[in-house]
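Deliverable D4.2, example record:
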Amino acid sequence: MLISAKTDIGKVRAENQDRFRVCELDAATSAAVVCDGMGGTRGGGLASDIASNAVYERLCLSYRDGMEPRAIKSMLISAVTAANTIVFDKSREDEENRGMGTTCVAALVHNGSVYVASVGDSRAYLLSESGITQITNDHTVIQYLKAHGMIDSDEPRVMNMKNVITRAVGVEPNIEVDYFELSASPGSVLLICTDGLTNYCSDELIYSKAFRRPLDEAAADLIDYANGCGGKDNITVALMGI
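Output generated by the structure prediction step:
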């Protein structure tokens, strides 16, 4: 099983508030966590650091060979929920960190099955012979308006809210975590990334650079492309072979 992950500060930001953790839990199972501290928010880097470590540690401690899908679901959601509590409590210890938060995508790949928990607008994609599919939903103002029929497309009047997220780890005492479970064919790739990549890369471009490519090269090429387009945000990519 192959895993590759890379992060880059980009060309504009003074600090990289993205964090990732990846590992092989056993010969047939890999895990990844990607977090993006809320841009411009005090403590964003701290929030993503705490959350990524909290989720990663709980997955490593809780995972057992032979876990049923419902147990994996419970483990992922519990890990992200626990991270929310830790970040929220930490934000209350120091006035300067009030309101800090982070996106979070946590994923586990086991014997051709993909399990994903998500909060925020960092994304998970499945790349296969049939193309690229976005697994996660963006928790953003624009997606909320679209889902409720309030806009039909990316209207200019709301484009300035493109990166305003409606759900983040650590901002509120309780969090709703999205969960996804799907099967993947051998040779597929699970890609997790922050919006520093997707703000510049279309789904088609991601697919062309990441599918059937060495994972290390694919991650580096995607980051180079985003930086070449301006690199206005931190950029993180994690790739997991299936």
